[in-house]
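Sequence of Pyrroline-5-carboxylate reductase (Microbacterium foliorum).
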Amino acid sequence: MADSLPSLAFVGAGSMGGAILRGVVASGIPVDGGITATNRTPEKAAAFADLDGVRSLALSETADGNVEAVADARIVLVGVKPAMVPDLLREIAPHLADDAIVVSLAAGVTLQTFADNLGAEVRVIRSMPNTPSTVGKGVTGVAAGAAATADDLALVHRLFATVGAVVEVPESQIDALSTISGSGPAYVYLLIEELTKAAVGLGFSEADARLMVEQTFIGATALLDASGEEPAELRRRVTSPKGTTERAVAVLQGAHLDRTFAAAADAALARARELAAGA
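Predicted 3D structure, token representation.
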């Protein structure tokens, strides 16, 4: 069925894996063969036990839970901490179905690491979701490994589309993507923090300042989404000639926001490369 997903296994259903899992369930898309999730403790496993169609295993109670989870899964999402990935891959490798697609949720772990531990013939797709995926407003970058087919990529694209937008890139662009959509929410929150401080400085209470600023950001992005207009055009409509907004925008542009954001992205990318090199 084009409007269903095949059987899924979330191996290490942490915060991001859990967000994707919940997104799939909330979307109402049928999952042929069901969903299995593993976590280390019964407490973490209990968080998913009440979700319809989900079998949630605690590894402390079911030692071979990861093997059980992947045995019948068409798509296996690997969500354990990056340092744990090689050991996990070696554990599950003998038990993967011949047509299994392994999807990495682990930041900084390369497709080569997956090929080294699973075998070059295994279909692997590397992904980089962001935290707004938890509310269905995410951006996920996906990069296909050498053995993955166009159909495999389309299937994984459909999976991540349940929690937001999907961007297909070569692996060489995954780190750069992480500096924009991965780290980007932090940049937005920083802008909200600083504008809130400015509002308090103008005499508003902390509560009123937060309300005004947060709803302004939420409203502005909702208008951008609903209108289909370019951001520059929406900015122009707010900026009356010789008005207050024009003067404020001139101050912001005078602070060279273009160079600041470019430098921030460059710094994040440099650090991503250091982390990939083990620094």
